[in-house]
Write a structure and sequence with these properties.
Layout: E1 12-17, H1 32-46, E2 51-56, H2 64-69, H3 74-98, E3 103-107, E4 116-117, H4 120-128, E5 132-136, H5 146-157, E6 161-166, E7 171-172, E8 184-185, E9 187-188, H6 190-196, H7 203-211, E10 216-220, H8 226-231, E11 238-240
Parallel strand pairs: 1-2, 1-6, 2-5, 3-4, 3-5, 6-10, 9-11
Antiparallel strand pairs: 7-8, 10-11
Helix pairs in contact: 1-3, 5-7, 6-7
């Protein structure tokens, strides 16, 4: 393998995307051009033999926690959020299929006309056959975030790492957009993330990763090629382990 395209350091990954990643500059909903660009990045990794699963959030459409704070029943709000993740998953699947990447959406909520039900062994088989698997509807339970769903699914399918795609180039001790003195961490351990309440993933997701020794790499999705760089072992972003 050439230096330009080093051998991937991961065999199987779970890529965690926020719903906002699909909205681009629209401020809401989905920008098909952005979805296509993300799909292209996934294709590059997939073509290098990395078995790739994806979990997408729903923040571009609906936020269950915010709705509950505004007075909606929390469980109802969370279920609506799960439905929104199915929409985003189908958008990403369409973008991948247009690029010739075979993919499957597996939903934790049964919605047979649109997606397969989540079945662990079937998901693993899809990955082994070279298909991208998109896990939709979170864990299928209210009160759990898509971060926790990403951690849970990654552990279930035996992924080597979670790649957490964000708008910034790693984890900082404070908001780098608001404070130029913010310090970036190159590496963190799980307990430090929990103690300092750093915004990597929610505490349930971090605890799951810690208990199962699953590393998390937080990186900037907006720079083209970063997913490929992470799976190639380049030291970008912040690694939590």
């Amino acid at each position: 393998m050439s230096e330009r395209h080093p051998k991937p350091v991961y065999k199987r990954i779970v890529l965690k995307l926020s719903g906002e990643a699909l909205q681009g500059k629209l401020g809401y909903g989905v920008d098909p051009k952005v979805a296509s660009s993300i799909a292209q990045e996934i294709k590059e990794v997939h073509e290098r033999g990395v078995e790739t699963a994806v979990v997408v959030g729903a923040g571009n459409i609906f936020r269950g926690l915010q709705a509950s704070r505004a007075g909606m029943d929390r469980a109802t709000a969370d279920y609506i959020g799960m439905l929104a993740t199915i929409i985003n998953s189908m958008v990403l699947q369409d973008a991948l299929e247009k690029l010739g990447v075979h993919s499957r959406v597996q939903s934790a909520l049964e919605i047979h006309e649109l997606a397969e039900p989540y079945i662990r062994r079937r998901a693993i088989r899809h990955l082994e056959k070279g298909r991208v698997v998109i896990f939709a509807a979170g864990t299928g339970n209210p009160y759990f975030t898509t971060d926790t769903a990403a951690a849970l699914r990654a552990i279930e399918i035996g992924a080597d790492a979670i790649l957490k795609a964000t708008k910034v180039d790693g984890v900082y001790d404070r908001d780098p957009v608001k404070d130029k003195r913010a310090k970036k961490f190159e590496k963190l351990d799980y307990l430090e993330v929990l103690k300092r309440r750093l915004e990597v993933m929610d505490s349930t997701a971090i605890s799951l990763c810690m208990d199962n020794h699953l590393p998390i790499v937080v990186f900037n999705l907006t720079r083209h090629g970063n997913i490929r760089r992470v799976v190639s072992g380049e030291r970008i972003g912040t690694r939590v382990e």
